[in-house]
Design brief:
Length: 114
């Protein structure tokens, strides 16, 4: 069976995968569909997403299931380190634009004659 790549705005489809999918490769009942799924993952049709719960569950699973998980695990992308901002920025005025003597005065609150 040929694996078709689903088109989702030109990117691979992001798919949440639970623990049972990794174990399905080693289960007679689910072996064929699981192998087709992971073939599509290797072909780039899907990006596998897992939460913390399956990671914890797989850590106590049999070694063959752990190996399947590790074979399809993508490392987290590293965020680039940005330089620390300098303060004040070079474009910041060195003197305040307003001083106490140039600050606009509020209108007087004298009562108006009626």
């Amino acid at each position: 069976m040929a694996t078709r790549r689903p088109k989702a705005a030109g990117r691979p489809l992001r798919v949440y995968v639970d623990t049972s999918v990794f174990g399905g490769v080693h289960d007679e009942e689910f072996r064929e569909p699981s192998e087709r799924f992971f073939t599509a993952v290797r072909a780039g049709a899907f990006v596998v997403l897992v939460s913390e719960a399956p990671v914890v569950e797989i850590s106590s699973a049999p070694a063959v299931v752990q190996a399947t998980f590790e074979a399809h695990r993508r490392p987290r992308p590293r965020r680039p380190r940005l330089p620390k901002p300098t303060w004040p920025p070079a474009s910041f005025p060195q003197r305040p634009a307003w001083t106490r003597s140039t600050w606009p005065r509020p209108p007087s609150r004298e009562p108006t004659p009626s």
